[in-house]
Design a protein that fits this description.
about 120 residues; alpha+beta; Glutaredoxin; 4-stranded mixed β-sheet; 5 helices
Length: about 120
């Protein structure tokens, strides 16, 4: 199990606390420092069953600069979104937990973290 976090994020810290309370074995990826490649983002999206715009933080300053909210959300625009997430990792929703069963969850709630724990 791996968890993508921003240590400054309270939801990330909460998710880590729940993983620790459960005694889960996991690795931490500080994705703002260890930026995922476009291929890694595509792989996580596949595991999540989501599109890149589903995990984009559209309220971030860089999102506003890019005009992200106005971008098309279709198959033809998918690569543009993935490239933006890789270039500006702050846009990636957090935390993301990749479970041992090959799935992943955006773990913004305690329930989502518990869901990921149940998959491993």
């Amino acid at each position: 199990m791996e968890i993508w976090i921003n240590p400054a994020c309270s939801k990330c810290r909460s998710a880590i606390d729940l993983l620790d309370e459960d005694g889960a074995a996991y690795t931490v990826r500080r994705y703002l420092e260890d930026v995922p490649s476009e291929d890694e983002i595509r792989a996580v999206l596949g595991r999540l069953g989501l599109e890149p715009w589903d995990i984009a933080r559209t309220q971030e300053a860089v999102a506003k600069e890019l005009g992200l909210k106005e971008w098309a959300r279709d198959e033809g625009s998918r690569d543009r979104w993935v490239a933006a997430l890789a270039k500006h990792p702050k846009l990636i929703q957090r935390p993301i937990i990749t479970a041992d069963d090959g799935t992943a969850v955006v773990a913004r709630t305690d329930e989502a973290v518990r869901d990921a724990l149940g998959r491993s």
